Amino acid sequence: MARILVIEDVPSVMFSLRMVLEGQGHKVATAGDGAEGLDRLRRDAFDVVVTDIWMPGKDGATVIREGRAAAPGTRFLAITGGSPNSANGASPGASPGAGIESLRQEDFGADRILFKPFERQELIGAIDALTAGS
């Protein structure tokens, strides 16, 4: 099974992600913010990093960019509920009425992206796809 680092600033979400992934037999480490997550990634090897995008301090896009430099073989799964800058979840600079569906994994440098709220099976499927062949 995979070694997974979950970076999430909301404790209940982090706990839920950890329980689902450990339930699938993965070894899971956690970090409560981007800076802590990058420290862990630089110290330990992970197959996949699951990172929230909108966190205080170092956001998920920064985690992905710096994480790729530190651990080029690691895959990145971004999770997001949209942008913190608008009520409807649009990305900054998006046209009025654009919602989270207008965001793409390329917007953050992720290998895959899941939009909150997502189902347990969507998370499992994304991790399976990212770890296929490893």
Automatic annotation (TrEMBL):
Residue positions where 4-aspartylphosphate is found in the record: 52
Gene3D superfamilies named in the record: 3.40.50.2300
Lineage, uppermost ranks: Bacteria, Pseudomonadati, Pseudomonadota, Alphaproteobacteria, Rhodospirillales
Feature: compositional bias, Low complexity: 81-99
Species this chain originates from: Azospirillum isscasi
Region listing for Disordered, in residue ranges: 81-102
Domain (Response regulatory) ranges: 3-131
Keywords of the record: Phosphoprotein
Protein name per the record: Response regulator
Domain of life: Bacteria
PANTHER family in the record: CHEY SUBFAMILY (PTHR44591:SF23), STRESS RESPONSE REGULATOR PROTEIN 1 (PTHR44591)
